[in-house]
Write the structure tokens for this entry.
Amino acid sequence: LETVPYMAVAECVKLKSISIPATVTAIEDRAFENCRMLSSVAFAENGALTRIGNWAFYNNHELTNLVIPEGVTEVGHAAFYGCTYLKEMTLPSTVQEIADNGFALCAKLQKIHVEAVTPPTIQAKTFFDVNRQIPVYVPDNAVEAYKADPYWQEFNIIGKSNAPSAVDNIS
């Protein structure tokens, strides 16, 4: 399997988890659109994935944690739009562009980890309806670049060395 095709399992309302194999290079547009019960997406480590298409995971309400793997350079238009319970996500060092509305209406997002030293290109509505006060953890040597970006600067940019450790999160 090299691509997850257009609308591959769209509207599959009972799908709860998926594993994307290492051979997949692209998740095409609308592949998992409206899979409302999808709560777990596992991407293969050291995989070939470079692109997540437009509306690929649109309206996947139950997804709470997302780790986009290394190698992905592009997250398409509205790719994760309406993932209303998404709380935390990690973007890889390879990500270069997140299209408009990529993570729109992810209002419960509490933190973002970005591994990229160069701020990925985003648009005015890439994070529409996401609280701009949430922490965005970036490499320490990239803090100033994110703070200088017209869209990333709206967020609470913090160097990774200042991120809370797992022990700090225990209450």
Q: What stands out?
A: The helical segments are 143-148.
